[in-house]
Amino acid sequence: MSTDSPRNPPRRLVPAAPPSATPTGHGRELGGVRIVVVDDDAEVLRVLEVTLSRAGALVSATNSAATALAALAEVDADILISDVAMPEEDGYSLMRWIRATDGVQQCIPAIALTGAADEATREKALAAGFTVCWRKPFAPAELVRLVADLAPSPRADK
Question: Which of 5, 99, 110, 113 is disulfide-compatible with 129, CB 3.0–4.6 A?
Answer without folding.
Answer: 99
